[in-house]
């Protein structure tokens, strides 16, 4: 079993249309803080990113925000967190997220979340890391993406080994157990 000390959560700077997203973000933040797991995230104080980081901090947890200076004009950087790491650009931000994290959770989000998710999967395939990834499937958000992954496996565009490091679940504890047993 592996100890999980830090988890990078990819998520949006918007809240989404369903209040269940914000509720699940609070649940995840409480879980991380209560289990002494450091949150690593994109450093934005808006939307789901802000909800998770504020919840972790409110529950005496540790939060590392990793920001990209080339997008600071369109983001609101979190200030009330444990540590801020500034990188010159988004590519360097993702490298730092990888460096500081033991595992990754893709929370429902938009283009940025999809791009971060794709990068981590690609880097895993290129053997740049061997860390697990979860799609936190809130309100069936990732059902179609998970089905796409299954089709790519069925059609031999990816291998079973590629998919073995990924779980799709709405249950936070199931995800953490997967990470620990990875």
TrEMBL record:
The keyword Hydrolase applies. Keywords: Cytokinin biosynthesis, Hydrolase. Gene3D superfamilies: 3.40.50.450. InterPro entries: LOG, LOG_fam. The keyword NAD does not apply. One of its GO terms (biological process) is cytokinin biosynthetic process. It is an enzyme of class 3 (hydrolase). GO terms for cellular component: cytosol. GO terms for molecular function: hydrolase activity, hydrolyzing N-glycosyl compounds. Its EC number is 3.2.2.n1. Belongs to the LOG family. This is Cytokinin riboside 5'-monophosphate phosphoribohydrolase. It comes from Candidatus Gallilactobacillus intestinavium.
């Amino acid at each position: 079993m592996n100890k999980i000390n830090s988890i990078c959560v990819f998520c949006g700077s918007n809240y989404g249309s369903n209040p269940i997203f914000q509720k699940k973000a609070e649940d995840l933040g409480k879980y991380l803080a209560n289990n002494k797991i450091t949150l690593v995230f994109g450093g934005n104080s808006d939307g789901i990113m802000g909800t998770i980081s504020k919840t972790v901090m409110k529950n005496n947890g540790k939060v590392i925000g990793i920001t990209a200076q080339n997008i600071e004009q369109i983001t609101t950087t979190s200030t009330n967190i444990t540590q801020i790491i500034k990188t010159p650009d988004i590519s360097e931000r993702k490298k730092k997220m990888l460096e500081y994290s033991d595992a990754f959770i893709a929370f429902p989000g938009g283009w940025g979340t999809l791009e971060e998710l794709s990068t981590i999967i690609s880097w895993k395939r290129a053997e740049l890391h061997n860390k697990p990834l979860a799609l936190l499937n809130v309100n069936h958000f990732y059902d179609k993406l998970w089905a796409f992954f299954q089709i790519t496996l069925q059609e031999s565009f990816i291998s079973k080994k590629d998919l073995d490091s990924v779980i799709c679940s709405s249950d936070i504890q199931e995800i953490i157990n997967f990470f620990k047993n990875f």
